[in-house]
Design brief:
With 139 residues, the chain is α+β, with helices and mostly antiparallel strands. Helices cover 47% and strands 13% of the residues. The chain has six helices and three strands. It has helices at residues 2-16, 35-49, 77-88, 92-103, 110-113, 115-122; strands at residues 53-59, 67-73, 104-107. It has a three-stranded antiparallel beta sheet, sandwiched between helices. It starts with a helix and ends in a 17-residue tail after the last helix. The relative contact order is 0.16.
Length: 139
């Protein structure tokens, strides 16, 4: 019951935010487990999508030999608008969650659903949001 509520919340959120659902919804047991496999998949995704793709890799255990891997794209303007609103209201975790869910392409769903993996992933999510420095001059 709780899983169905989470799925319906996510689907309604994605529709409201104007974001499309992930291209390849993935099962819990995602195939990629090593950094080499993940980097290869990152190159394939970047080439096929013709846009920036980011890899998030979270160690499954303290040894870090196997990974939970997810791939996300750059957030669009509407996603950034939602994120900035949440950040201004001091809800940083929700802002990172919006980026993660809205920009998710494929990967191990534990990164989105399991708190241990989720909080590890959102520690690096700010690296996805980058801006160029504009110049303004007045005479």
């Amino acid at each position: 019951m709780i899983l169905l509520l989470r799925l319906s919340y996510l689907c309604s959120f994605l529709k409201l935010s104007g974001c499309k659902q992930p291209i390849n919804p993935t099962p819990m047991s995602y195939k990629i487990k090593t950094l080499q496999e993940a980097e290869k998949k990152l190159g394939e995704l970047k080439e096929s999508r013709k846009e920036d793709v980011f890899m998030i890799a979270v160690p499954e255990d303290d040894q870090g030999q196997t990974l939970a891997v997810g791939f996300i794209k750059n957030p669009n303007r509407s996603v950034l608008s939602q994120v900035m609103s949440l950040m201004l209201s001091n809800d940083v975790v929700k802002g990172a969650e919006v980026v993660l869910h809205s920009c998710w392409l494929e990967g191990d769903d534990r990164i989105k659903e399991d708190d241990q993996f989720f909080f590890s992933a959102i520690n690096v999510i700010d690296q996805v949001i980058s801006f160029r420095q504009a110049i303004i001059k007045k005479k």
